[in-house]
Amino acid sequence: MKIKGVIILVMIAFVLSVFSISLVSAGVGIKWAQESFLVDEGEKTCLTYSVYNPWSEDSNVQIELPENLKNLLTSQEAETKLVPANTPSASAIPIKFCFKVPQVYSKDCLVGGVICKQECKEEQIAYDGEVLVKSVPGNTEISGSGGSATTMSVSAPLRLRIVCNAHGRDFSLVYIVLALIALVAIIIILFRKYRKPESERKKEKLQNLKEEMNRLKGKK
Amino acid sequence: MKREDVLLLVFGIILIFSIAMLFIGNSKLTGHVTSGSTVSNVTIVSYLSIAMSTNLQSGILFGSVDTLPALNVSASHNYDGASSASTFFINVSTDSNTAVDFCIKANAGMKNAGSDVIGIGNETYSNATSSSSTVPVIANNVSLTTSNVKSGINIAAGTPNYYRYWLNIPAAQATGTYNNSVSFEGVATGGSCS
User: Fold this and answer.
1) Which is it for strands B100-106 and B60-61: parallel, antiparallel or unpaired?
2) Interchain CB contacts (distance < 8 Å): A and B
């Protein structure tokens, strides 16, 4: 009789425990296969993670970076994505976020920020942090009496190694300026040359030929 | 040859030279670029998923307090489960291939509309992987902070992490409705909180 009672109690506890576990809200899941990324300085970079939701309610999620990387990586763009209920990890949905990597290595420039070369003698710079996938609740306000609103997120480790692209002095701007000056000069010369009517130009040509002939005669 | 023709020739050469140099410079045949980028891959795929209980998602509510000072005011769902268990919990999905560490933080102390604050150290919590009328135990309570702190550690897939919350309100605390925000972060066990 006692054993039966214990078994019944254990079964009740088990059922209640399963029942309480089922009382969960929309969830959030992250799947990742890469933790280290090589990114070019000064370039816009996009990373893709996968999100899933094996729970019984749809979930809106957003991907973002922690504060330490937020301040470093500018122009962050992240999309909010609806992850349907019962999406297993095997069917995880890719979610992309983009950011601009700042210039972190020193450059040797001749004039201001132009005609620069980069030797990449410094050690490679790397930033560590976590990529956060946040559950975006419809309303985070606490209703009624006071208390604490709650939010949740999952995160994956992230290591960004910034690539330094060594290059010689970049004279592109000099060539562009030279080409423009030459082009303007050519246009001015051609304009001055062809602005007179053809008859006048021929007369001028004839006059020049006569002067040349006279000069040659004078030499003889 | 006339002077203007000479000038035309000179500027023509400069123009062609500049354009040629621009093309050569941009064609990356100069040898200037000495390193490129490649992606380093890891072969391990990790995935984890968590969900809060509906009561935890609704917020941590302490109800109305009539007498001050009030010590260890219990949150409304600390003991309302079966056998007085807590119904504040975060569950780790069985569809996870790693155990999870939970990190917890609050954005600030609890504040009312008049900007009076109940210090963040007055809001405390305790956690455990099971729950009964005594567990999570109040004797183990610790204060919330504004930076992430590991709370539940190495919570296996399919296991809930139960929480209880308490609030201490000083005698001189101004009346009002006080709020703040508490966030939970799940990381692969051994990983860092953000």
Assistant:
1) unpaired
2) 259
